[in-house]
């Protein structure tokens, strides 16, 4: 009951006119970047990160969560209409979603996706509200060895599970870790890799790197290469944008199954919503094969409903894991973690004690965001599709200007702009050569935590390395990591065979 | 961090060694990322060697973690380079895929490109060797976007936000093949002015007023 009263307080905090404005703005922005192929919620959050320092933390995080969820609502729209998913989490929804649109059921497909995202996100938010405080309580027992295990877990999972090439993923991660060690050593105070330049004493700003890699590098990549690739044609969605009772009966179990599959992945740092969406799709497909009249391949509503619900369920839980453990499972969550630090807040057990107003207002705003997103997505998906009419040159020119704005506004120095360009070029090269960018961001955010945990653990045990693998929590964490790795290996093999069926 | 900033340079450097010219360019392009990463690891290595650490510091000192990272980067770079080479020698067998002109219908037509496309384009061909259409790489767009940003970064404090950002906007739009320079300029000035009003005046971030500020 205590949780409920805290949540009600949270609603009181979130329902002020000002905070409502930020929720709605975040939802609109998130949906917009989700809809447009090539832009994603991680780019939007990275671009917003510098400018939100002018806001108070609650407003900033409320907006961020709106963007994060909004991206997942919007990303399936273009997947369904054009067969080009807005971001990676919508790939699984695109298979059957686009087939539904091809058979003239585009509006129903859009509605299925929006409702699925709503159900997944809403259930996850409820679970987070009741689960996160316990998780935070539990994580007070964590010591350096546990935090190291958690960070290693995130490193291995994000760099090798999601990416196609484990070598490239790990290289990206190592680059992030390497960038993070530049600057004054937090344990001894010795400057490292600074070439005695005062610009580098504070290290390379995470804001600069995220904006460079996720936004500027993407702009260069798109300008030089991606814009020459042909785009699909957009289908028109006409007719009733709601679902018949038969369709609802068909989709409801899939929504619920998808949600159930997505939830646990929110606390597993396996790179966000991609894996659960594929698992949900695969599960529905298997169930479908057993039916008398298999629908998959002809635009099965279940094949769209399940991954959409799974994606948002994972995202909702991921926010819980971020708040309670300080554990980011995707690039977007990693940037939000960085944002917490910029405000001097450390997500994890202490956050619930030190900043209950912020936490509960944020949790309450999840529910508000879900409802706002359902309202702006369910009937208006076709309006969002009109965003594609923005001329590409101006869209990307605007993004570039925004990169410069954010970085100059936070640092006020030409050096940081040049650093932005330099790291942006590296990001562009990584994009060009199919290096995944999320491990770099996660490495940079969690690298310092991993390093200090490792050194604290070793120093307090007089260099005895066995302390790193003792204790029940650590053993369980490494065990789960092993299971996750094996599961991915399996799902990678099956996804390879799935194509040709 | 200079190693990172200057890292991409090898991509445009002239080929240093003697190898068949047709394959050399793309090999160099393929090795860009490993080269950048190796350069970064070397920067860390040099930094570690030149770092002065007092005797009193306990075992896992400030060098320990970077050393692990550096070793991992070197090892993985070697693995990656080997896999690239293996991939190439495997792909060499069915040679005759077209090296240029795959995407010549794109807006920035090769005729306008100031550099010879035959030198520029094949560089990144390998990226989608299995894809039906080989991706095209436009150095012209690259120059507009990167050059535009460089000018913006260096001249921002002199020009001021409104003019500087409009120049950046115009250059990037140009890089994306925008064909209406005057209209782009108007849009750019509008965007930069709106950003100035929203972020400098309303949200209180500080953007330089530069040239325009001095006049008033």
UniProtKB/TrEMBL annotation, chain A:
InterPro entries: DUF112_TM
Pfam families (UniProt xref): TctA
Keyword Nucleus (UniProt): no
Domain DUF112: 20-442
Key words, A-Z: Membrane, Transmembrane, Transmembrane helix
Organism: Kocuria marina
Residue ranges of the TM segments: 20-39, 46-69, 109-135, 147-163, 169-187, 199-223, 321-340, 360-381, 393-409, 415-430, 437-454, 466-489
Keyword Repeat: no
Protein name: Tripartite tricarboxylate transporter TctA
Highest rank taxon of the organism: Bacteria
């Amino acid at each position: 009951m205590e949780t409920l009263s805290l949540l009600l307080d949270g609603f009181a905090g979130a329902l002020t006119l000002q905070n409502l404005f930020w929720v709605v703005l975040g939802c609109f922005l998130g949906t917009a970047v989700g809809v447009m192929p090539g832009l994603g919620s991680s780019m939007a959050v990275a671009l917003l990160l510098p400018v939100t320092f002018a806001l108070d933390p609650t407003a900033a995080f409320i907006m961020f969560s709106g963007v994060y969820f909004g991206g997942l609502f919007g990303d399936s729209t273009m997947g369904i209409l054009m067969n080009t998913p807005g971001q990676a989490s919508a790939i699984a929804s695109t298979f059957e979603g686009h087939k539904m649109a091809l058979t003239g059921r585009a509006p129903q497909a859009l509605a299925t996706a929006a409702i699925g995202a709503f159900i997944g996100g809403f259930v996850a938010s409820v679970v987070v509200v009741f689960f996160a405080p316990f998780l935070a309580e539990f994580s007070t027992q964590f010591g350096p060895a546990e935090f190291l295990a958690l960070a290693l877990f995130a490193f291995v999972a994000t760099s090798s599970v999601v990416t196609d090439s484990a070598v490239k993923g790990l290289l990206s991660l190592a680059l992030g870790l390497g960038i993070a060690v530049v600057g004054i050593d937090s344990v001894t105070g010795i400057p490292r890799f600074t070439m005695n330049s005062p610009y580098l004493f504070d290290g390379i700003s995470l804001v600069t790197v995220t904006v460079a890699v996720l936004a500027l590098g993407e702009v260069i990549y798109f300008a030089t290469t991606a814009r020459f690739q042909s785009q699909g044609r957009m289908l028109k969605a006409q007719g009733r944008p709601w679902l018949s009772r038969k369709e609802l009966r068909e989709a409801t179990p899939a929504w619920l199954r998808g949600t159930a599959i997505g939830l646990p992945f929110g606390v597993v740092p396996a790179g966000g919503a991609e894996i659960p969406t594929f698992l949900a799709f695969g599960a529905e497909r298997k169930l479908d094969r057993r039916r008398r009249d298999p629908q998959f391949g002809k635009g099965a509503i279940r094949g769209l409903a399940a991954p959409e619900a799974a994606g948002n369920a994972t995202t909702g839980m991921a926010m819980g894991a971020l708040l309670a453990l300080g554990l980011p499972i995707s690039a977007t969550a990693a940037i939000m973690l960085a944002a917490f630090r910029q405000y001097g807040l450390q997500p994890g057990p202490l956050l619930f004690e030190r900043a209950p107003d912020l936490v509960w207002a944020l949790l309450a705003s999840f529910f508000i965001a879900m409802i706002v997103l359902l309202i702006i997505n369910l009937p208006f998906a076709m309006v969002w599709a009109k965003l594609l009419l923005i001329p590409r040159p101006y869209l990307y020119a605007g993004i570039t200007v925004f990169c410069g704005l954010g970085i100059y506004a936070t640092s006020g120095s030409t050096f940081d702009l040049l650093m932005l360009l330099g790291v942006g070029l590296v990001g562009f090269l990584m994009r060009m050569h199919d290096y995944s960018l999320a491990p770099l961001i996660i490495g940079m955010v969690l690298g310092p935590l991993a390093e200090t945990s490792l050194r604290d653990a070793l120093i307090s045990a007089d260099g005895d390395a066995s302390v790193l693998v003792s204790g029940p929590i650590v053993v369980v964490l490494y065990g789960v990591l092993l299971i996750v790795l094996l599961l991915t290996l399996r799902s990678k093999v099956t996804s390879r065979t799935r194509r040709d069926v | 961090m200079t190693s990172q900033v200057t890292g991409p340079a090898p991509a445009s450097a002239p080929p240093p060694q003697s190898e068949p010219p047709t394959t050399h360019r793309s090999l160099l392009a393929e090795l860009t990322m490993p080269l950048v990463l190796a350069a970064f690891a070397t920067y860390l290595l040099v930094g570690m060697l030149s770092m002065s650490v007092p005797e009193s510091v306990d075992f896992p000192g400030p060098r320990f973690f970077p050393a692990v990272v550096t070793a991992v980067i070197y090892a993985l770079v070697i693995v990656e380079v080997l896999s690239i080479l293996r991939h190439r020698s495997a792909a060499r067998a069915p040679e005759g895929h077209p090296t240029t002109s795959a995407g010549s219908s794109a807006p920035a037509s090769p005729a306008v490109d100031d550099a010879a496309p035959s030198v520029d384009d094949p560089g990144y061909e390998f990226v989608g060797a299995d894809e039906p259409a080989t991706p095209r790489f436009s150095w012209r767009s690259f120059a507009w976007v990167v050059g535009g940003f460089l000018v913006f970064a260096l001249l921002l404090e002199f020009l001021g936000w409104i003019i500087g950002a409009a120049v950046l906007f115009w250059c990037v739009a140009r890089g994306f093949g925008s064909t209406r320079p005057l209209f782009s300029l108007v849009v750019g000035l509008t965007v930069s002015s709106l950003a100035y009003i929203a972020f400098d005046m309303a949200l209180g971030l500080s953007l330089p007023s530069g040239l325009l500020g001095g006049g008033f």
